[in-house]
Amino acid sequence: MDNKQNQEEHAPVYRPEGGKKIKGLFSTQTVEKVGTGTTQRKTISKMFWFCTQNDAGEILVQPLNKNMVPAGASTAVPLDDFLAKYNPEPEMYLKSVYPKMQELNSTVQRAEEQRQRGALYSAQFEYENALAVDEENVRANFGLGLTYMERGEAVKAKDILGRIVGLEAAFAPEHKHLFNEFGISLRKSRMVDQSIEYYTRALAMTETDENLHYNAARAYYDKGDLQKCREHLDRALAINPAHEEVAKFIEFLNNKK
Questions:
Q1: CA separation (Å) from 161 to 29, 92, 164, 166, 174?
Q2: pTM for the whole thing?
Q3: What is the DSSP letter of 59?
């Protein structure tokens, strides 16, 4: 199998025919008039979008950054509007965008492997390479923050925290394991106020996660705010009455009276 055939199998651009979901690179054009009278002329600007169809049938469109990789928040577009305004760009996707996406993913994967092995400076190098391509990359931001915390560099970790809190995509359900791990690391690094700020932001995005409430309770306990601690334990238990750690924590607090 040659390289082009391999790319076509792994990076298709789907149209709605045949029941397949839309996925791939698309473009939109905007025509603007510049000048007045006889000097007036039209300019056409073209934007590129990485597009995927969700289970509700909507198309999630995400702009490309200057490095030609999808970056930033996705916007949901109704299917009819999408088909009317967006044009497929399969050749550009296969030749340019898809390889760059794969390269970015490989860089982040290398960084994660280095961090798991304890090679923290190598991990930092790879994470920073990834962020140079996509500064909003969720996995790279979380990973770099965790790397700094594991090295005991609280000031740098705090800077990364500020970036993560501002990334709406960081708190999407698919990153749940990352934001739980990050919050726990904040608390263990004695960055209690920062962990509470972080959990507050996370819970604003996904309020029905019992583990987030449990971890927020532990952060408030470390801060000495037992009322807030109990509030989050109660919410965690309401979501999952079988949560053993929550039940043990409540029993521990009751025995302290």
A1: 37, 35, 5, 9, 19
A2: 0.76
A3: E
